[in-house]
Design goal:
It contains 16 helices and 15 strands. The protein has an eight-stranded mixed sheet with strand order 4-11-10-9-8-5-6-7, with helices on both faces.
C-alpha cells in the first residue's frame, strides 16, 4: 500500500500520526494519493469512521488535501513557494521590467531618519517590557486611517504586509478553510494561503476591483475570509472605486462572519482615494506597508482592525519576535513627520509611465490594464512564447502564471525602471512578441 510504506494504527490519532511521520520523512511525497478510506479501513481492520476521522485530522493540519472523487493526496510541503520559481532570469544586456520593485529615485533617503531613530534610542533605550507599538507611530497611523474613513480600531505593527496577512489568517482560520483571493493576484499571497493549509478561491478582478458576482460565489461556497487590494493591485493596477466599494460592502454585510483583510500597500504612491470596505463584518483589518513608498528593506507595516483580531495578532507576535524594532518605528515616524514622500509627485511619476505605455500599446492594437500603481497587465494568448520573445528583444517581463489561478494568460510589466524614451521601444517589443498588434493591423 502506497509503495513500500505501510500506514499503521488502530485509532484515528495513530493512523494520522503514521501518515504525518511518513510525510515528514519523505516516504510519502507531495501529490501522492492516499488509499480510499474504506479500502484503508479494510486493510487496517478498523471502522471506516476511524479512517475518516484520521483523514479529517490530516486535512486540518494541512498535511493532505481532498479533491472530490480524485481522492485525498499529500499536499505540497508548506515551505515550498512554487510561484517564486516562475521568475525570469535576466541575462546581461536585458532591461528588467519584471521585478515589481519601486523606482529607487522616488524613494526618500533614509540617513536622517535612521540617525534620528538611533539618537532617540540612545536617550531612551528600548528594553524588554516596552510596549510593542510606539505611541507616536500609532497616533500618526491612526490619524491617517481616520482621514481615509477607516473605522476606529487599535493599531499593530508587523514586518511587512505579508507578515500581517499571515498573522491575521492564522488568528481566525484553521487548515482546510477557504480564502477568497483576487485572480490574477499577488503571487506571494497565492503561495502563502496553501502553505498555511488553507484553500484559495479565485475571485475575478476588473479595473474597479473584485467582481461582486465572483466574490458572491466564493462566499456562498463557504469562503471564511476575503483578501482585497484597495489600490495599485498587483498585477493589474486595479483600484476599488466608490461604486464598487458600495457593492462589495453590501455583499460583505450579508456575510458578517467572513474575515475581511484589506491590503492598501499603494498608500503613499497613488493619488486615487481610498474607499475602504472595513467595518461591515465582525472581524476585519486594513494593512499599510511602507515598502513601496520608502523601500522594500524598511520592513514595517501598520494595521488596524477590530479589537479581537488586533489583540490576537499582538498576543501571538509577543510569543515569537515580540515586536518590530523601535528603531524602524521611529525612523518611519520621522519620515512621516518630515513629509519625506510626496504621494502626488510619486503617483504622477508612475502614472506618466504607466499611462504612456498603455496608450502606446493601444495604438499598436494591444489591450492592457493599469489604473494605478507601478504595473501594467497585458493579456496574451501564449505567456511562455511572449516572455521568451521579449527576452530576445532585450526586455524581461514577469510571466502571468506567477499571479494566476483560473484567469486567462497575461504578462506583467513593471514601469518603475522605464523612462519616457523607453515607452515606444517597449510597446513595439510587446506588440511584436504577442502577435496581437500584427494580427489587428491586417484585420
Amino acid at each position: 500500500m502506497l509503495g513500500e510504506y505501510r500506514i499503521e494504527g488502530r485509532r484515528a490519532s495513530e493512523i494520522a500520526a503514521s501518515v504525518e511521520r511518513a510525510v515528514g520523512a519523505g516516504e510519502l511525497q507531495p501529490g501522492e494519493v492516499l488509499p480510499p478510506l474504506r479500502e484503508l479501513a479494510v486493510y487496517l481492520e478498523v471502522n471506516p469512521n476511524t479512517v475518516a476521522a484520521a483523514y479529517r485530522t490530516l486535512r486540518d493540519r494541512g498535511v493532505i488535501e481532498t479533491a472530490g472523487r480524485r481522492g485525498s493526496r499529500v499536499r505540497p510541503r508548506p515551505a515550498s513557494t512554487p510561484r517564486e520559481g516562475l521568475r525570469v532570469e535576466v541575462p546581461p544586456g536585458v532591461r528588467d521590467a519584471s521585478g515589481g520593485n519601486p523606482d529607487p529615485s522616488l524613494l526618500p533617503p533614509l540617513e536622517r531618519a535612521l540617525a534620528h531613530a538611533a539618537a532617540r534610542s540612545a536617550q531612551r533605550p528600548v528594553l524588554y517590557g516596552t510596549p510593542p507599538v510606539d505611541d507616536d507611530l500609532a497616533a500618526l497611523a491612526r490619524a491617517a486611517f481616520d482621514d481615509d474613513g477607516v473605522p476606529a480600531g487599535p493599531v499593530a505593527v508587523t514586518s511587512g504586509a505579508l507578515d500581517a496577512i499571515e498573522r491575521v489568517l492564522a488568528a481566525h482560520l484553521r487548515p482546510g478553510d477557504t480564502v477568497a483571493v483576487e485572480d490574477p493576484g499577488w503571487g506571494s499571497l497565492l503561495d502563502l494561503i496553501p502553505a498555511l493549509g488553507l484553500r484559495p478561491a479565485p475571485v475575478g478582478v476588473d479595473d474597479e476591483g473584485p467582481l461582486p458576482e465572483s466574490l458572491a460565489r466564493a462566499l456562498q461556497d463557504g469562503a471564511r475570509a476575503v483578501v482585497v487590494t484597495d489600490r495599485a493591485q498587483n498585477p493589474t493596477g486595479a483600484a476599488v472605486s466608490r461604486t464598487r466599494a458600495t457593492e462589495l460592502r453590501t455583499l460583505l454585510a450579508a456575510h458578517p462572519d467572513a474575515l475581511l483583510i484589506e491590503d492598501d500597500h499603494g498608500h503613499g504612491i497613488v493619488d486615487l482615494p481610498l474607499h475602504p470596505l472595513s467595518g461591515v463584518t465582525d472581524h476585519w483589518v486594513l494593512v499599510r506597508s511602507t515598502a513601496k513608498a520608502y523601500g522594500p528593506d524598511l520592513r514595517l507595516a501598520v494595521l488596524t482592525g477590530d479589537a479581537l483580531t488586533i489583540d490576537r495578532v499582538r498576543g501571538r507576535q509577543g510569543l515569537g519576535p515580540g515586536w518590530v524594532s523601535h528603531l524602524l518605528q521611529d525612523a518611519v515616524v520621522h519620515l512621516w513627520r518630515t513629509t519625506a514622500v510626496h504621494p502626488e509627485a510619486v503617483a504622477a511619476a508612475y502614472g506618466r509611465r504607466r499611462d504612456g505605455l498603455i496608450r502606446a500599446l493601444a495604438e499598436r492594437g494591444v489591450r492592457a490594464r493599469g489604473r494605478s500603481g507601478m504595473n501594467v497587465w497585458v493579456p496574451v494568448p501564449d505567456e511562455t512564447g511572449a516572455v521568451a520573445r521579449l527576452l530576445h528583444s532585450g526586455w524581461a517581463v514577469a510571466p502571468g502564471a506567477r499571479f494566476r489561478m483560473a484567469s486567462p494568460p497575461g504578462i506583467r510589466i513593471t514601469v518603475s525602471a522605464l523612462s519616457d524614451d523607453d515607452i515606444t521601444p517597449v510597446a513595439d517589443a510587446v506588440a511584436a512578441a504577442t502577435g496581437v498588434g500584427e494580427t489587428r493591423r491586417y484585420e
